Amino acid sequence: QVQLVESGGGLVQPGGSLRLSCVASGFSLTHYVVGWFRQGPGNQRERISCISGYDGSTRYVDSVKGRFIISRDNAENTVYLQMNSLKPEDTAVYYCATHPHECYSGDYEYTAADFRSWGQGVQVTVSS
C-alpha cells in the first residue's frame, strides 16, 4: 500500500525549531517530487516547499524562505522539513505529498490540487 506518514510536529515557542519527516512506505520516493504543505484554521492548503526528484532542486514560498529547509534522504526513503525561527503564524497542520513530474512548469507552481499520495498531516503549534 502506497502511503506517506508525517511526524515531528508538536508545540514549540516562537523562535524555536522543529524537523518534520515524511516517510514513504510501499514505494520508493527516490525519483518523486515531494512537496510540503500547510493548512491553518479557515485557510486553504498552501504549498510551502518542494524538492525535485531529479536534481534535488528546491523551492520555497516567500513566507518561509530563509527559515525552512527541505531535504531528502533516499536511503531512508524520507523527505525532511527543517523549520527554524518559527513564528505563531506558522501554526498549522503540515502535510507532505508527491507529484509525478516536477515542482513547477514554466511560470506555474504546482499546487495542492496537482499533488497526490497525501499523508495524514501533523500538527505544528507555535505559541508561548
Question: How would you explain this protein's 3D organization?
Answer:
The chain is mostly beta strands and 128 residues long. The protein is built from no helices and twelve strands. It has strands spanning 3-7, 10-12, 18-25, 33-39, 46-51, 58-60, 68-73, 78-83, 92-99, 104-105, 108-109, 122-126. The protein has a six-stranded mixed sheet, with no helix packed on it. A four-stranded antiparallel sheet has the order 1-3-8-7, with no helix packed on it. Strand 5 (46-51) and strand 6 (58-60) form a beta hairpin.
Briefly say what this structure is.
By secondary structure, the protein is mostly beta strands. It is built from no helices and twelve strands.
SSE diagram, text form:
Blueprint: E1 3-7, E2 10-12, E3 18-25, E4 33-39, E5 46-51, E6 58-60, E7 68-73, E8 78-83, E9 92-99, E10 104-105, E11 108-109, E12 122-126
Parallel strand pairs: 2-12
Antiparallel strand pairs: 1-3, 3-8, 4-5, 4-9, 5-6, 7-8, 9-12, 10-11
**CA radius of gyration:** 14 Å
| Distance separating the two termini | 39 Å
Bulk shape: globular
Which structural class matches the secondary elements?
mainly beta
Order of helices and strands: EEEEEEEEEEEE
Total strands: the figure is 12
Major beta sheet summary: 6 strands, mixed
Percent in helix: under 10%
Spans with pLDDT under 50 lasting ≥5 residues?
Answer: none
Number of helices: 0
List keywords for this structure.
single chain, 128 residues, mainly beta, six-stranded mixed beta sheet, 48% strand, globular
